[in-house]
Design brief:
546 residues, eight-stranded parallel β-barrel, binds phosphoenolpyruvate, alpha/beta, single chain, Glucose Oxidase, domain 1, binds magnesium ion, TIM Barrel
Length: 546
């Protein structure tokens, strides 16, 4: 562990702004120092009883999850939880833990940790994908057991102190939903890239974030002071007086410039040559919508509905979903609102919907592909959209489109459900253009899409063949690469009079705004705190080349 003062690190800036605070180290429970201790022979029985209590707890959770999946989704998904339950009873696993307790006289946590390590080593040494995935299942069971043994019922990110700089190796989408917007002032992670979910979350929260590719846990102790500069990608650990003073000056300068942009946020964004460009907001919850309104957003360009699904303990029913969506978009009544169909799978798994493992989830059953396999989940959402369209100017956006058939099925289902509900107000249907296939199949997709929005975060990973979360290819994953701009131009040339927006993070890269407008983009959608800055850049841009 290093304790050096004024340790300066440079990483990749992924969310602008400057903030300082006390480090909060967020660690996966499996990586944490667990409570491990020796026991006396006479304590073996009570330790077995402790372990048995945790097993029963976890069994109950798994059974509830399986039953719910059986009714809400299908038997195949429910079987995953049942398989976890079987693994939990497996002699090699549970018997192994009991033996450790009995023979080595250690507590349940220590015994569990040893067995997990052994199984991981055994599985990991086998080449087969099957065993690698089983190792993940066993780790997940291990997490559940450790949580139950520690009596943990809530997630540790729910209880971080005010003013924390959250430091993590990586944050999964299902964890970031717990991050309190009041408590976290900045984010520093070891893994990820500009298009990673963690970076998107930080921009949405309006907090600076840096990806720092070194072992931060070796350099920091919880509570250490940290300065985060999300403009230059700098992180200073335990800063000295001079570093603090410089940081203070930089922060004042940034805040002043930002305040100038905010003071004009409510005004429309009109280019130098007189084109009005709607600047919309990407949101995930009500708080984002309120922030979007405060920041002068002209509408909602992308409502990522998975935020709500990720925060639920079970698959939400239609009325619950309707209430949530209604309350989230309510501040934008009378303005244009694009709600995206649930975009999960691969990179954004739902904790209560552990889909069968896939060898390459980013290229797997995601977005609309998954929804077409679970029509019940899709229908619930479309019914909710039809109900919302009665009072809102609504567009339903379909994620991960790669075949014309996908749009056709959604349109058909929407019409059938509208008939059933007896409503004539059908929301507009839009497609996300985020696969190369969609770029090349524009005319077919346009048969069923009245609106297009380019998701450059995914489009970049597929065009550049570089995973958006993988730090080793972070320099290849660049959404401002000429290849992406060419794809955007290609889409704009085929638009047949449709409105085309960009809702990926590229739309918030201030020096890319003019090229996007000149390529033919007419609408931008960005994280709420970025709206004023983007409007300012639009005002300085020329929409048509001179
Ligand atoms: C995108 O891919 O650009 C996008 C906006 O969607 P998400 O980041 O949610 O995948
Ligand atoms: Mg996407």
């Amino acid at each position: 562990m290093q304790t050096q003062e004024n340790l300066m690190l440079t990483g990749v800036p992924v969310s602008p702004g400057l903030a300082s605070g006390a480090a909060f180290l967020f660690q996966d429970i499996l990586e944490r120092e667990i409570r491990a201790y020796s026991i006396e022979p006479h304590q073996v029985d009570s330790e077995h009883a402790r372990l048995q209590g945790a097993v029963e707890d976890v069994t109950g959770d798994l059974r509830r999850a399986a039953d719910q999946m059986e009714t809400d989704i299908d038997a195949a998904v429910a079987d995953i939880f049942r398989a976890h339950e079987l693994m939990l009873r497996d002699e090699e696993f549970l018997g192994g833990i009991r033996k450790e307790i009995e023979h080595d006289l250690v507590n349940s946590e220590r015994a569990l940790q040893r067995v997990l390590r052994r199984l991981k080593r055994d599985f990991g040494s086998r080449r087969s994908e099957f065993f690698r995935l089983r190792a993940d299942d066993i780790e997940d069971l291990g997490r559940r057991l450790l949580r139950s043994l520690a009596g943990i019922r809530s997630h540790s990110l729910e209880r971080i102190p005010l003013g924390s700089v959250v430091v993590a190796k990586r944050l999964m989408p299902s964890e970031t939903v717990f991050l309190s917007r009041r408590s976290a002032v900045a984010l520093v992670t070891q893994f990820g890239g500009t298009g990673s979910h963690c970076a998107i979350l930080a921009r949405a929260m309006g907090i600076p974030a840096v990806i720092q590719n070194s072992d931060l846990f070796q350099m920091l102790t919880s509570g250490d002071e940290v300065l985060v500069d999300g403009l230059r990608g700098q992180v200073v650990i335990r800063p000295g007086p001079e570093a603090k003073q410089n940081f203070h000056v930089e922060r004042e300068h940034y805040d002043r410039k930002h305040a100038e942009a905010v003071s004009r946020a409510a005004e429309p964004a009109v280019t130098r040559d007189g084109y009005r460009i709607p600047v919309l907001a990407n949101i995930g919850c009500r708080e984002d919508a309120e922030k979007a309104l405060e920041n002068g957003a002209d509408g909602i360009g992308l409502y990522r509905t998975e935020t709500f699904y990720l925060a639920c303990d079970e698959l939400p029913a239609e009325d619950k979903l309707f209430e949530e969506y209604e309350s989230v978009i309510e501040p934008f009544k009378g303005k244009s609102v694009c709600v995206r169909l649930l975009d999960i799978g691969g990179d954004k798994p739902l904790p209560y919907l552990p889909l069968p493992p896939e060898p390459n989830p980013n290229l797997g059953r995601r977005g609309i592909r998954l929804l077409l396999d679970y029509p019940h989940v899709l229908q619930t959402q479309l019914r909710v959209m039809l109900r919302l369209a009665r009072d809102h100017d609504l567009t339903v956006v379909v994620p991960m489109v790669s075949r014309k058939h996908e749009m056709k099925v959604v349109r058909k289902m929407l019409l059938v459900l509208a008939d059933e509900l007896g409503t004539e107000r059908i929301p507009r249907l839009g497609a996300m253009i985020e696969t190369p296939a969609a770029v090349f199949l524009m005319d077919e997709i346009l048969e069923d899409a009245e609106f297009l929005t380019i998701g450059t975060n995914d489009l970049t990973q597929f065009i550049m063949a570089a995973d958006r979360e993988n730090p080793f290819v972070a320099t290849i994953y660049r959404d401002s690469h000429a290849a992406i701009l060419k794809a955007v131009s290609c889409v704009c040339r085929q638009k047949k009079g449709r409105e085309i927006a960009v809702c990926g993070e590229l739309a918030a890269e201030l020096n890319q705004i003019e090229p996007l407008l000149q390529a033919g983009i007419g609408t931008l959608s960005v994280a709420p705190p970025m709206v004023p800055l983007v409007k300012q850049s639009v005002r300085a841009a020329q929409a048509k080349p001179v």
